[in-house]
Amino acid sequence: MRRTVLRLLATAALGLSAPALAQGQPAAASPAEPAAETARPQLVLAVSIDQLSSDLFAQYREHFTGGFARLLSGAVFPSGFQSHAATETCPGHSTILTGARPARSGIIANNWFNPAIARADKKIYCSEDLSDPASTSGNPVVSANLLKVPTLGELMKAANPTTRNVAVSAKDRAVVMMGGHKIDAGYWWKGSSFTTFKGRELTPAAQRANAAASALLAKGAPALKAPAWCGPRDQAVAIGNGTVGTYRFALPKGAKPDVLRVSPRMDAATVDLALGLVDELKLGQGAAPDVLSVSLSASDYIGHAVGTEGVEMCIQMAELDSNLGRLFAALDKRKIDYLVVLTADHGGHDAPERLRQQAMPGASRADKALMPAALGAEITRRTGIAAPQGPLIYGDGPFGDMYVNAAVTGAAKTRVVNELLNLTRNHPQVTAVFTAAELAATPVPAGNPQDWTIKERARASFMAERSGDVVVVLNRAVTPIPEPVLGAYVATHGSVWDYDRRVPMLFWRKGMTGFEQPNPVETVDIAPTLAAVIGLRLDDGAFDGRCLDLDAGAGNSCERAK
Ligand SMILES: [Zn+2]
Q1: How close is the Cα of 295 to the center of ligand 1, in Å?
Q2: Which of residues 79 and 13 earns the better pLDDT score?
Q3: Which residues share a beta bridge with 80?
Q4: φ, ψ for residue 260 (rounded to 5)?
Q5: Which residues contact 336 (CB under 8 A, 6 or more apart)?
Q6: Does domain 364-479 have CATH number 3.40.50.300?
Q7: pLDDT, tens digit, for every residue of 290-325?
Q8: CB atoms within 10 A of CB 289
Q9: What digits encode the pLDDT tens for the residues 232-291?
Q10: What secondary structure letter does DSSP report for 202?
Q11: How close is the Cα of 399 to the center of ligand 1, in Å?
Q12: How far apart are CA 189 and CA 187, in angstroms?
């Protein structure tokens, strides 16, 4: 009772002012010190917008009137960096709440290879349980076993076991990488419904979300309206046998679930489920602060399917703004004092066909000759070395980590690696190629992530036991999709370039005084920043990032983290 009164007083009188923050105590504070807890938010809401580049944010921020408008009144960091080279979903989500770069989290890519393991494809999916014989890279048993560091939610639970750690997304890897190993409730979309970890039941909130999705698919839904400001984007651009740029997300009656998934409606369903879990688990209403991670995947699915600069992404930005507004308003209605951070797992880049029309004549698709199978075949032709079983070179595409077949060893392996370096380094679409030894010898980078060398970026997502024998870096504006699949995969991310590395980082809490800090920061700064505000005391070296002072004035929200 007393605590509630004090919390209301603190919220009303102080908001997120410096004195309120400075009075906080570590999460382990005993109930005998209720006054100390009043400054802490009751809920940490961590939102990731999959593929929301700083470029998209800059392009659309003037039009936002919903959830983004609220966030724009908080602490705005328009140049957050997913500073590593492997700008993919799994590594990106792993940085947000662990404060660790992929070099330490171990999440070096969505998929990596271990040519020495028994499974035929030698491929490992980032959020699978390798110890479960039922798990495959294509149909994983979902787990956080491969994540080598704890998440903020786990650290908070260690400090106070009553903290609930909940995560929801359309993607399993987003749930796992934001939630971590000890998740109280975690749901992601699979096929035509939300699912959860092996051995767990769907709770009523998830069952309701699935019933709503089934009903929507059965009934269908009309095309979405494009705001007037989308007008200039509404132009057809030819890719392959069709066009992109004018699609409006009509959901025909009885449509395949993927039509729903690749649309703003997937985000709406994810937000609905998140709110269902807030009520079911009474998040933000307990003695200790809870963590709710929400990763909204539709921007990424849309970016991949039709690119980033058509009317589709414009509609998505408007719908996303509205879905975020709905999420925040629902938490307000429940009188939950929440601290929200919004960021992205990586940025993105448009399809080269439209880039070429719009002042980037050099944009291209990667040469098929850079695919691992083609490189392996060419190396065999040149050296006579072939693998007794399986391909000579393993890799997940025409760039990134590449691995030599484990049966090729000693002098033969050296020849294969040298020929691989020769072929890739001399290719006109390749900027740089690093060997594992070169990256291992490179110091972990520090300082302004915008100024890091290409090698330092690659170092930040290098881990000797998981990374390739070589890492191939493509030129700027080379899309690593040799042959586009219209409506599914025409554009992507994953590069070392800043269109893929730079993402917004927005913090907001009721009553806080906003500011904008344009200098580069990193997504690994988020966890230490949140830890300080909730008063979680951790050892030095727990995070690769630094605490960002969210107090716009002379106060410092980081002070008690020291
Ligand atoms: Zn992603």
Answers
A1: 9
A2: 79
A3: 503, 521
A4: -75, -45
A5: 42, 43, 278, 283, 284, 285
A6: no
A7: 999 999 999 999 999 999 999 999 999 999 999 999
A8: 29
A9: 999 999 999 999 999 999 999 999 999 999 999 999 999 999 999 999 999 999 999 999
A10: P
A11: 17
A12: 7
3-state helix, strand, coil in the chain (%, to 5): 40, 15, 45
Cβ proximity of 48 and 295 under 8 Å: yes
Percent of the chain's residues with pLDDT above 70? 93
Count Cβ atoms below 10 Å from residue 456 Cβ, excluding itself: 21
**pLDDT per residue as tens digits for the range 344-376:** 999 999 999 999 999 999 999 999 999 999 999
Residues having C-beta closer than 5 Å to ion ligand 1: 50, 89, 300, 345
Q: Which amino acid is at 33?
A: E
Instruction: In the chain, list all ranges with CATH 3.40.720.10.
Output: 2-107+147-355+497-561
Distance from residue 255's CA to the centre of ligand 1 (Å)? 25
Residue 189: strand, helix, or coil? strand
Which CATH code of 3.40.50.2000, 1.20.1290.10, 3.30.70.2860, 3.40.720.10 fits the domain covering 2-107+147-355+497-561?
3.40.720.10
Closest by alpha carbon to 21, among 527, 536, 535?
A: 535
* Catalytic positions, written as ranges: 89
Euclidean distance between CA atoms 50 and 87, whole angstroms: 11
Name the 3-class secondary structure at 504. Answer: strand
* pLDDT, tens digit (0-9, with 9 covering 90-100), for 119-141: 999 999 999 999 999 999 999 99
Dmax over Cα atoms in the chain, in whole Å? 79
Residue 443: what pLDDT? 98
Q: Ligand 1 mean position to 85 CA, how many Å?
A: 14
Domain with CATH 3.30.1360.150 in the chain: 364-479
Query: Using N-to-C axis directions, what is the helix angle for 311-333 and 298-306, rounded to 10°?
Result: 180
Where residue 560 falls among pLDDT bands split at 50, 70, 90? low
CA of 71 to the centre of ligand 1 (A): 21
Asked if residues 249 and 487 have their Cβ atoms less than 8 Å apart, the reply is: no
CA separation for the pair 517, 285 (Å, rounded):
32
Residue 161 has pLDDT above 60, yes or no: yes
3-state secondary structure of 333: helix
Q: Which residue has the tokens 């890897």?
A: 173
Rg (CA), the chain: 23
